[in-house]
Amino acid sequence: MQTELQPTLDRVTGLHDRTSFDARLNRYAAEPARQLQTAALLRLDIDRFSHLNESFGVQTGDEVLRSVARCLRECVPNALSIARIGDDEFAVLIEKVDAGTARLIADDALRLIQRRVRVADLPLSVTASLGVCELGPERTPLVLALHAAGLALRESKRRGPNACHFFTSDLLQSCEARTELEASLRRALAAREFRLHFQPQINLGTGDVVGAEALLRWADPTRGMVPPGAFISVAESAGLIGPIGEWVIREVCRRQARRLARGLATVPIAVNVSALQFHDPSFAEMISAELRIRDLPGQLLSLEITESVLMRDVEVVASTMRALATHGVRLALDDFGTGFSSLAYLKRLPLYRLKIDRCFVSELPASRHDAAIIQAVLSLARHLEVEVVAEGVETSAQAEFLRNHGCDIAQGFLWGQPLTGRDFQLLLNDVSAPSITQVSAPDAVTPGVRRRRVAG
Ligand code: C2E
Ligand code: CA
Ligand code: CA
């Protein structure tokens, strides 16, 4: 067999190509003695490679591929085969290794790649995700190895970046469940099963409703009302967050414009966006077109992005937000305090608001630590001249503590569960407020707001 004697090589990295790798794997499978040993198959994929290729060009992309290939050769010098089996995907077949050794090799590879692989001369490190499948007696049969390692890789991608996951039979089941959920979500989008609920945001000083957060729900005919936590991550990994997120933004804009057209009062509405949405080059244009078509002041829309997902996307988010800021659309940093090195973002992003995560509010006023954190955030925000919204306020004692320490705005179950669209409209209707012309003449803190006082 020619492929065995003279393996075909990948032009970019000099590693085996997909054909050679398959041939090696088949040859390995054909030798019964080897089937009795334990071995491991690794599949590795570079995190966000297509973004890197688009931003820095194909030559830089090729350099990254070569650099990853060098790391793999260094980590597993005696592998049976190291191959580039897809655009940015690699596979490694290692014989005579047990699970513990495979784990060490995988960790080494990820660490080395993160430390060594660089993008051009920039201080940007590259990471990869790894899926590992153990082979051998009573383990995954070889014919399934590549597929099984692929499922493990998909799981790492979901948890990643820079993650490693081993294949287990549970994974097969959860992958099947995810695949089914993905299909249901596609159907839900076409069947218009998504709904928005609205959580009022209350000015703690006056009791006025000064805004609201739109929260996505899925009205599934069999599962009932499904909360976003149960499907957002699947929507993200299935590439569905773009169309779903676009629906949310269009729906909020449609509702806002309808109220304006009817001469009714409204307040700015915040939409949660996933960092992935910012990678769609047409995201900012979609929003500005929506505002333009509906003749809607951008001040009536704001975007919330969580600190944890922002970590690796801060520049993309910052440039998109600068473009949107020209229309008046503003950015809030969600779940503040739960991510890493949060303070660095405060400088780089055009923020107007920090949202203090519920975990710092729930044990107020008893917890001295949480009280200290909240006071520090409030003082930081005052100096940076950004608003603070406290999330998850459930008791009047919490609201009072926040008010006494100068927190502007809060939201939470203290004022009730998030409202259906209809109930929220009714809440807004029940106002006695200035004329609608104020909507397009925003002031610094709560532009265009018509207010309604609520108890709490
Ligand atoms: P989040 O942005 O932190 O939203 C606040 C979550 O806390 C909501 O859960 C809300 O119902 C809940 N909550 C509000 N007040 C209280 C309270 O006083 N006590 C307690 N225990 N919980 C409270 P929900 O609606 O299940 O949303 C969960 C997460 O899903 C949101 O967290 C947000 O990250 C994400 N999400 C919601 N809608 C969207 C969307 O349209 N797009 C994207 N990408 N993510 C969304
Ligand atoms: Ca939010
Ligand atoms: Ca939040």
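^ calcium ion complex. Confidence is low (pLDDT under 50) at residues 432-451. The pocket of C2E (ligand 1) is lined by residues 199, 215-216, 227-229, 232, 245, 248, 272-274, 304, 334-335, 358, 392-394, 411-413, 418 (CB under 6 Å).
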